[in-house]
Amino acid sequence: MSDNKKTAGVDVPGGDKQEIQQKAEEAAVCDTEKPARKPVILSGMQPTGALHIGNLEGALKNWVRLQEEYEFYACIVDLHSLTAIYEDTKPLKSLIFQMATDFLAAGMDPERSAMFVQSEVKEHAELHLLFSMLITVPTLMRLPTYQEKKDKLDSYGFLGYPVLQAADICLYNADRVPVGKDQEKHIWLAKDMAQRFNALYGKTFKEPEALFTEIPLIKGSDNRKMSKSYDNHIPLEFTEKQTEKRLKQFYTDPKKVRKGDPGRPEQCPIFLLHRIYTANAEEEIAPPCKTGELGCVDCKMRLSKNLNVALAPVREKREELLAKPDYVWDVLAEGRDRARARAGRTMEKVRRKMKIDYRATKKKKKK
Asked: Any idea what the CATH number is for the domain that residue 269 is in?
């Protein structure tokens, strides 16, 4: 019969109290010296190529901040993009490279974040398949993502898009997922899938929580949401002259026809950008706009100057990275390896819980 005693979570052989206490204190010191585990975040973007200021302000700046506080996995979700471009996949490699370049140019740090391509971590597809057994077709058909685009995209892949998204999140046992309030439904499904799996097979997945972030409203030249698909955007790759030209095309307050007319800055997409790129815009830009003293052309030129100053470091870094394509691909390879390691551990547990680890060898019990 063992004469071991357990004190403060440490097994120690039988001995005097002083020895036992000393070992317990040493263990406690070791525990306090261990660095606290950072909570995990997973976020992703479809590879659309070079990013624009809407992506920069709506996501990337937030990612750069969060990578200091979290173990960050930044996924370029090429499998998701196949729901729309499966017929012509040739551009994907270039689009992925451009997006990764802009991630780095905006300040994503490969030492702090694992940046990788979704399809290079096969566990995404495996967990997607297993999760797809746990949800009904009618449930998927009721989701807004399907209802909004079913007339254009009605494939099995598109129907299951939210399940793949849930798998992306759960695969890394993410604690948080940074989203805007309008994307809350995506996190709801990931949490629901985790609950379903845990109820059936035992505790395996964390239930992810949305990390709501205040996303500034960025409108494009036509007063719609800034988007590459609308061609109303300002790409990070634009030169200063191209930026100035695009801003000249921007919609402004339709009631402010000429200089001297009173304006309504709160209804102007140019002023929304001034709020981000012009210091004291509420005092420097809004009042003279309202009185008519500041005309739209001058207002746009001020914004152009300030925007170009703000983007200069990103553009400079971008040019450096474009000259080093091997480095960019190496960053993605390193991120892939880190992602595979975490995803692999998760899937080992999933297979074990589902009892489909058919070739797993039983560990011998220690005598």
From this structure: 1.10.240.10
Tens digits of residue pLDDT in 293-338 = 999 999 999 999 999 999 999 999 999 999 999 999 999 999 999 9
Residue-number span of the structural domain to which 138 is assigned: 40-216
Structural domain count of the chain: 2
| Pair 274, 307: CB distance under 8 Å | no
- In order, the DSSP letters of 30-43 are HHHHSPPPPPEEEE
CATH code at position 194: 3.40.50.620
In angstroms, what CA-CA distances link 127 with 137, 254, 301, 349?
17, 51, 51, 12
What are phi and psi for residue 18, nearest 5 degrees? -65, -45
Q: What pLDDT, in 10s, does the model give residues 189-228?
A: 999 999 999 999 999 999 999 998 777 779 999 999 999 9
Residue type, 227: S
Q: How many CB atoms lie within 10 A of CB 325?
A: 12
